[in-house]
């Protein structure tokens, strides 16, 4: 694949995202088991070829984003009979490879900035990916919050707000390297640079920066740096409970961004189970729950509760079987109704995951996406 000629600024990925009434992303199953802790029969697979097919199909259907998550786990992942997430693909390397198989969709990579990265390394890799993709790459910069992950890198615990102060420093350096025309000298709390420079410059103003936030420190960081912010429901995965609290979450984050003189978009992660009848939806739901891998689920829930993140604190154990920060179950019409309500609650987009990705993605494209267009949520 040849390098794509950079688009005009009004055609840049960020401008295209901001023009959509509801941004549409696909949460990739780069991990064994994806997002569902169950051995109910399905074709979902962690391999690159499988994920590449998903991204190519999502692009053809009209999705805006494909997003890669990252965990650092041990030999058996979360264990159990499914060895949940024992195998995984690197998010950054996967995005680079997917760039050669796509032409329009934005590719987002999760990078744990505090796990051994120097900002100069990421700045060069990011600028390179920006040119390869014609501006379609972005970094989801995260601090990491699980001590078991930090242990693998030989790192001592870092307090929650201090992690965000360090991430702010990291992001400031990367942005300077992407946007300033002079060699950079910088002395910070963790990183220092002398005469640093990245060439060629990014094709657009800079690659997209993304973060996931639920705390005040995370919101303050996002307001300063992020173009797109993954928000979570503090009330758990049930859609009605989430809709009660999300307007306040969105309003607070966007108010912080306004204080910084910036505009950002928020996106939330629903797991969607959609069929032509509620009876079919209930059958799929029941099959997933009956196939729950209880040992892996226990390790999964305990693993994420062992850190200081509050993103999933309101989620019940049974909700974690299926996955998704929120859950939308129903007919195509019911799914679109809930998307309209998420938009009214201040969400600018949805980052979708599925149980059985290929057929569920096809159903979404054929039965739900036309209704989203009719509802004015997609151009």
From TrEMBL:
**Locate the Luciferase-like domain: which residues?**
36-348
One MF annotation (Gene Ontology) recorded for this entry: monooxygenase activity
Q: Cite the entry's keywords alphabetically.
A: Flavoprotein, FMN, Monooxygenase, Oxidoreductase
Q: Which SUPFAM superfamilies match?
A: Bacterial luciferase-like (SSF51679)
Lineage top rank: taxon: Bacteria
The protein in question is named LLM class flavin-dependent oxidoreductase
What is this organism's lineage? Answer: Bacteria, Pseudomonadati, Pseudomonadota, Alphaproteobacteria, Rhodospirillales
């Amino acid at each position: 694949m040849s390098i794509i000629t950079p688009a005009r600024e009004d055609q840049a990925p960020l401008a295209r995202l901001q023009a959509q009434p509801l941004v549409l992303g696909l949460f990739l199953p780069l991990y064994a088991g994806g997002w569902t802790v169950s051995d109910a029969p399905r074709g979902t697979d962690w391999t690159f070829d499988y994920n590449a097919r998903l991204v190519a199909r999502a692009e053809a259907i009209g999705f805006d984003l494909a997003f890669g998550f990252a965990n650092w786990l041990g030999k058996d992942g979360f264990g159990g009979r499914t060895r949940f997430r024992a195998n995984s693909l690197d998010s950054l390397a996967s995005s680079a490879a997917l760039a050669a198989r796509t032409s329009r969709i934005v590719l987002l990579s999760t990078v744990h900035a505090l796990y051994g990265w120097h900002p100069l390394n990421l700045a060069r890799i990011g600028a390179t990916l920006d040119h390869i993709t014609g501006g379609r790459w972005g970094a989801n910069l995260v601090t990491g919050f699980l001590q078991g992950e930090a242990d693998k890198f030989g790192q001592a615990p870092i307090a929650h707000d201090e992690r965000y102060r360090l991430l702010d420093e990291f992001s400031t350096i990367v942005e300077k390297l992407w946007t300033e025309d002079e060699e950079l000298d910088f002395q910070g709390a963790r990183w220092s640079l002398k005469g640093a420079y990245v060439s060629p410059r990014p094709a657009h103003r800079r690659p997209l920066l993304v973060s996931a936030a639920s705390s005040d420190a995370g919101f303050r960081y996002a307001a300063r740096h992020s173009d797109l912010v993954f928000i979570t429901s503090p009330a758990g995965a049930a859609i009605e409970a989430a809709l009660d609290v999300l307007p306040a979450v969105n309003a607070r984050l966007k108010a912080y961004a306004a204080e910084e003189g910036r505009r950002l978009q928020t996106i939330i992660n629903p797991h969607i189970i959609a069929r032509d009848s509620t009876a079919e939806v209930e059958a799929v739901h029941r099959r997933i729950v009956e196939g729950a891998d209880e040992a892996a689920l226990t390790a999964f829930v305990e693993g994420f509760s062992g850190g200081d993140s509050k993103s999933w604190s309101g989620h019940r154990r049974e909700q974690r079987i299926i996955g998704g920060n929120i859950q939308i179950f129903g007919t195509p019409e019911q799914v679109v109704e809930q998307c309209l309500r998420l938009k009214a609650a201040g969400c600018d987009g949805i980052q979708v995951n599925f149980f059985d990705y290929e057929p569920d993605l096809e159903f979404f494209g054929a039965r739900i996406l036309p209704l989203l267009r009719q509802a004015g949520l997609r151009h």
